[in-house]
Write a structure and sequence with these properties.
Blueprint lengths: L3 H29 L10 E3 L7 E2 L12 E3 L15 E5 L7 E2 L12 E4 L8 E3 L2 H7 L2 E4 L1 E3 L2 E12 L4 E4 L5 E6 L7 E2 L4 E6 L1 H19 L5 H20 L4 H10 L5 E5 L4 E5 L7 E2 L6 E4 L3 E9 L11 E6 L7 E13 L4 E9 L10 E9 L5 E5 L4 E2 L4 E8 L2 E13 L2 E6 L6 E5 L1 H7 L2 H9 L18
Antiparallel strand pairs: 1-2, 1-3, 4-5, 4-6, 7-27, 8-29, 9-24, 10-19, 10-23, 11-18, 12-14, 12-17, 13-16, 14-15, 16-18, 19-22, 20-21, 20-23, 21-22, 24-28, 25-26, 26-27, 27-28
């Protein structure tokens, strides 16, 4: 009995010591505050597809565990927010807000948006590691002189102002043709054909008789001399009206007798386009015998699309490439812009005047023109076309706000030239926009929600509804 008592005392002392050490360790852990409390996950997401989530731990089709997502803990660097709550937003970034506290479909609380935070609407947040993986590139918005090349197809045509018709003003017969082939080149003053005309012979005789009477009345009265002089001048003027060349009239005055046949001369140097005249045929006054075109200058009639016609100006220098001469370039100027638009092709004809001193530009040849269309302003803000996300109803660019922070900024764009859009509204000089991987950022973040939030800047969402049941939007 005496031996048992010391053993009991030793056992009681050991249990007391163990109980005291356990309580001491528990208190020290509680003081540290990090070992006894374990964070509770908000939800679990698919390891390969972040869009797939679960409220309980589970595995994917390959046996991989879903990744636990925890709520961020406040730190000393990020003090708790305070102030007036404007509304509550969806915790996952969906385009859904509420004026009263509520939970989403997964039981997560909507996050409050405090007064002063509305400036962050329209922004998206991508972690720096993801930005690097996406290969995001940016460019600075600066002023540029925008020019873009307008191209159009057309064909070489005859200059209508340089086409001449040979039409006699009296009746007669063609005795001989000196130019008897279409396309033949003629020179100014070259005989085209020889004609016989009784009217022409009569006019020559009247002139010679009037001239002889003038010489006979030199010693007569002044009135008789003036009458004879007027008759001679009128007969000579009649021959001038019939387009008789001065050299032929001088020959008539020298011979002092009429000639039976007379040659018609070419009025211009050019090419015979049409030749209805034939040897032996009878012609009437005003009948077309030859049509001759001066091809020293030709036209290129090109069809310019309606969206490009605003960049075409009279007098602009144009580079012309002809299919028949691929190694040659011809320069001309815009001479006329036609006032009508072809409804079938939605094009406007533009006339370009081209010098043709070498005679290479033949009517009917196909070619194309290229001209540089200048903007109305010498320089304006511009962004690369790769920076623009066009939804069909509006254009948006991603503006870099900081490390991993981007703002969806609607813009109003103008001329597209040389890979740049003119910025009419929405940006200022020095802004940095995303030019590469902007569509990937769209995919990685809920850009639609950001855009909707940007639109909310113009509306007051802080109004308190009379009925809380109508707070969801």
């Amino acid at each position: 009995m005496i031996r048992v008592i010391p053993l009991l005392l030793i056992l009681i002392l050991g249990l007391s010591l163990g109980f005291w050490m356990g309580r001491h360790q528990e208190n020290s852990l509680n003081l540290n505050g990090t070992a006894v409390s374990e964070r509770k996950p908000l939800y679990y997401r698919h390891p390969m597809n972040p869009q797939v989530t679960s409220t309980i731990p589970t595995k994917d089709e390959m046996g991989m565990d879903y990744v636990a997502i925890y709520a961020e803990e406040p730190t000393a660097m990020t003090p708790p927010k305070s102030g007036k709550i404007l509304y509550y937003r969806h915790p996952m970034g969906a385009a859904d807000t509420s004026l009263v506290p509520k939970k989403d479909e997964m039981g997560m609380d909507y996050l409050p948006v405090y007064e002063g935070e509305r400036a962050t609407l329209g922004q998206v947040q991508i972690i720096p590691e993801k930005v690097q993986k996406l290969g995001v590139k940016t460019a600075t918005v600066i002023e540029r002189t925008l020019t873009h090349s307008i191209r159009a197809l057309g064909s070489i045509q005859v200059d209508e102002r340089r086409v001449h018709a040979v039409t006699p003003k009296f009746a007669g017969w063609i005795q001989r043709l000196y130019v008897n082939a279409t396309g033949q080149t003629v020179k100014r003053g070259q005989p085209l054909l020889e004609i016989y005309s009784p009217e022409l012979v009569t006019a020559q005789q009247e002139y010679l008789i009037a001239r002889q009477g003038q010489q006979a009345l030199k010693m007569g009265s002044v009135q008789a001399l003036a009458t004879a002089k007027n008759l001679a001048e009128n007969a000579l003027q009649r021959l001038h009206y019939w387009d008789i060349a001065p050299a032929q009239l001088q020959r008539l005055q020298a011979l002092e007798k009429p000639v039976d046949t007379l040659s018609l001369l070419s009025p211009v140097t050019g090419v015979v386009l049409d030749k209805p005249a034939q040897e032996g045929m009878r012609f009437m006054p005003g009948e077309l015998l030859f049509r001759i075109a001066d091809l020293s200058t030709v036209w290129l009639l090109a069809d310019v699309f309606e969206q490009d016609i605003a960049g075409v100006r009279l007098g602009q220098v144009v580079q012309v490439h002809i299919n028949a001469y691929p190694d040659r370039q011809f320069n001309g100027k815009v001479g006329f812009i036609y006032p009508t638009l072809a409804m079938e092709t939605r094009t406007v004809k533009v006339r370009v005047e081209l010098p043709n001193t070498e005679g290479l530009l033949k009517p009917g040849l196909y070619g194309g023109l290229t001209l540089a269309a200048l903007d109305d302003k010498p320089a304006r803000l511009a962004v690369p076309d790769s920076a623009v996300i066009d939804s069909g109803t509006r254009q948006v660019v991603l503006l870099k706000r900081g490390e991993g922070q981007f703002e969806a900024r609607p813009v109003k764009l103008g001329l597209l030239a040389d890979g740049y859009y003119a910025v009419l509204e929405g940006l200022t000089a020095g802004d940095e926009v995303v030019t590469h991987a902007n569509f990937l950022i769209d995919a990685e973040s809920n850009l639609k929600s950001a855009l909707d939030g940007f639109g909310d800047k113009e509306t007051d969402t802080a109004q308190t509804p009379t009925d809380p049941t109508h707070g969801d939007r």
